[in-house]
Specification:
3-stranded antiparallel beta sheet
């Protein structure tokens, strides 16, 4: 089946610390391999490219903290001026070996979130991340995140979380969800739109319930829901992810076992 723009194996070249007005949602340094091993995004650092021996065993793709970070590019003053109210948007993007954002999908926006969604997409196109690492090698990954925007006493409050779990978001916990990656033992190749079973162009979303251990191994995979049903998205998602390996989830700076529900978005 032809691939949608996320064709990791052929199209990706090479690609959290979150710094928002009053809030930091970040991975804390730890004795074990930590996603905060690199305090600056590649575009900010003048240091030589690290060798595998200098990289942590695992590190999820992370938002940076400098001018190229999406959190510092979003114009919250403009959002308020244009009338954006409290809103949230889920998004997924492919992060290449260099930290570049190659593709972005947004979905599940709350009512009246269009201004926030447009600003997010525009800023992601101009941003870079700290790239992911698996077994001390930089890898291409899918990053699943959530942006929330609130107006508190007339001032903007913007946060970006590296997961889409309702419980984790409600607690604003320091949790980074697992990230599927390409290469270094993973057979994941991106998302394949089910052209062989669809007679018209549709967008679809599939919720996958999965268990991933602290080494990034997929231990269980179940299709929770699909919309629209019975047109091929369920099969496509199961086939795409059953061979995947993951950067493991991180909690408080350490890799952990997790059970998550991952929304997978398909478009023609």
């Amino acid at each position: 089946m032809p691939r949608i723009p996320l064709a990791f194996a052929t199209a990706l070249l090479a690609c959290g610390n979150l710094l928002a007005a009053e809030v930091q949602v970040q991975v804390k340094p730890a004795a074990s391999p930590s996603p905060a091993a690199s305090p600056k995004s590649p575009s900010q650092s003048q240091s030589p490219t690290p060798t595998p021996s200098q990289l942590p065993k695992y590190r999820p793709a992370l938002l940076g903290i400098g001018p190229s970070s999406v959190i510092n590019r979003i114009d919250t003053a403009s959002l308020i001026q244009n009338g954006q109210k409290d809103a949230s948007v889920s998004f997924c993007c492919s992060v290449a070996l260099t930290g570049e954002i190659k593709n972005t999908w947004t979905y599940r926006g709350t009512p009246d979130s269009k201004l926030l969604e447009r600003e997010l997409v525009k800023c992601l196109d101009q941003s870079s991340f700290i790239p992911a690492v698996y077994e001390q090698h930089a890898v291409n990954v899918l990053f699943f995140g959530t942006v929330t925007f609130k107006v508190v006493n007339g001032k903007p409050r913007l946060r970006i979380f590296a997961n889409q779990e309702k419980e984790e978001l409600s607690k604003e916990s320091d949790f980074i969800g697992p990230q599927p990656f390409v290469g270094v033992g993973s057979k994941f190749e991106g998302l394949h739109y089910p052209n062989d079973s669809l007679t018209s162009e549709l967008s679809g979303i599939v919720e996958l319930g999965m268990k991933v251990d602290a080494a990034g191994n997929l231990k269980d995979l179940q299709v929770v829901s699909e919309d629209p049903p019975l047109v091929g998205f369920r099969r496509a998602a199961a086939e795409d992810f059953r061979v995947a390996r993951f950067i493991p989830a991180f909690r408080d700076g350490k890799p952990v076992d997790c059970s998550v529900t991952l929304p997978v978005y398909y478009e023609p």
